[in-house]
Specification:
The chain is of the alpha+beta class. It has 10 helices and 15 strands. Mean pLDDT is 76; it is low at 304-400.
């Protein structure tokens, strides 16, 4: 048996294996339970909490000892190198604190191998959802993409790339919250635009990795367009149910548009996917914020897909900061996107919390609205009204 049996304990009984959740080429993932004591002012309570544990195990090289726990054949240089990368993955994840990124609780070595403990996500992957339904509605696909953009905006702001975005690496909780997982290829960059580990990048997954990922040469910049291509490919799969062709095919023959048209994907959304997957990186969408803004601009065109509530226009107070950060209840904390200096804030109940002024109103002060309109090609007021409509609608869609 190559997996840990149910009932096996780790860390001196701290974690008990419940069942295997999945196995890949470099690791086995388990559902486990840990016992916790909660202490309150009026009393104490003992609870069992589910966690996910990932075990380093190379299926083509490692074997399980007769004791059913320890790992054999771990002395080779290759195994040691991948084990080091496995631990690095856990450490990299532990530094990321975002509601759309799986949380790592701890990493440890035991049984002649390594483990790390993560939060248990009560849902499935986007890939499983696609297989179940054949494809996703544009509203679902856009909502998921917005949340992935939130996670990537945070990662890129911390100079980290995922490098293996795909539906299998995006999980959804039962309430529809996205969680990015599997950071095995993720790479941290320093302020000089150089990776802190080796300069080589993982190949990624065929169909999702751009052509330059296999032979990427560092130029002192943070190559966020690698993740943008993969996110565009993920949108393609969500909308059609079909994995896009490998990038070598796309660069020579172009991205097949007919699968998108066959399922009546709106032409504006097709254009966004196409630009995100442009074979040449200079022609690609250049930032997650740009992709997110294009999707927000597109959202009014989804009004016919459900969610007919039409709230009136809101007022807003311009902000200097950027990005929407999801909260655990499916809402967003008030950190508007950097569209000029203007923005507004989503709350967790599908409503909106503009920053109030001293007179009880909401005053758009300090922004250059004309410049905003010129730079983005949108009417600022209309943009905010339309976003208001669709954020409320999207809180309805999230219950799929």
């Amino acid at each position: 048996m190559s997996i840990l049996n149910n009932g096996v304990t780790l860390q001196n009984g701290k974690y008990t294996i419940v069942k295997m959740l999945g196995q890949g080429g470099f690791g086995i993932t388990y559902l486990a339970v840990t016992h916790m004591s909660l202490n309150g002012q009026l009393g104490n309570m003992d609870v069992d909490v589910y966690v996910t544990i990932k075990e380093f195990f190379i299926s083509t090289m490692n074997t399980r000892s007769l004791d059913g726990k320890s790992i054999d054949q771990t002395d080779s240089t290759l195994v040691k190198d991948y084990k080091r990368k496995f631990i690095r993955e856990a450490m990299s994840l532990s530094h990321l604190h975002h509601d759309n990124i799986v949380k790592v609780l701890e990493v440890f070595e035991e049984n002649n191998t390594a483990y790390y403990v993560m939060e248990y996500i009560d849902g499935g992957t986007v890939d499983e959802l696609i297989r179940k339904n054949g494809k996703l509605a544009p509203s679902q696909a856009v909502d998921i993409t917005h949340q992935v953009c939130n996670a990537l905006r945070y990662m890129h702001g911390n100079r980290m790339l995922h490098l293996d975005l795909k539906p299998k690496n995006i999980m959804l909780t039962q309430s529809g919250i996205v969680k990015l997982i599997d950071f095995g290829l993720a790479k941290q960059y320093n302020t000089n635009g150089e990776p802190e580990e080796s300069t080589s990048l993982g190949l990624g997954t065929p169909g999702y990795a751009p052509i330059e990922q296999a032979t990427y040469r560092q130029d002192g910049s943070l190559p966020v367009t690698l993740d943008i291509y993969a996110l565009g490919a993920t949108m393609y799969k969500m909308l059609t149910g079909v994995v896009p062709p490998e990038s070598s095919v796309v660069i020579n023959e172009g991205l097949p548009m007919q699968p998108l048209r066959n399922v009546s994907v709106p032409s504006q959304l097709i254009a966004i996917v196409s630009k995100a997957m442009a074979p040449l990186k200079r022609n690609r969408i250049q930032s997650v914020q740009e992709l997110d803004t294009l999707l927000w601009n597109f959202q009014p065109n989804l009004a016919g897909n459900g969610g007919n509530q039409q709230p009136g226009p809101i007022h807003y107070t311009p902000q200097q900061t950027g990005g929407f950060t999801p909260t655990g209840n499916g809402g967003y904390t008030p950190t508007p996107p950097p569209i000029g200096n203007g923005g507004f804030a989503f709350t967790g109940n599908g409503g909106y919390t503009p920053t109030p002024s001293g007179n009880g109103g909401f005053t758009p002060s300090g922004s250059n609205i004309n410049n905003d309109e010129e730079n983005i090609g949108l009417k600022t007021k209309g943009m905010f009204v339309e976003r208001t409509k669709n954020r409320q609608k999207y809180s309805v869609y999230r219950g799929f």
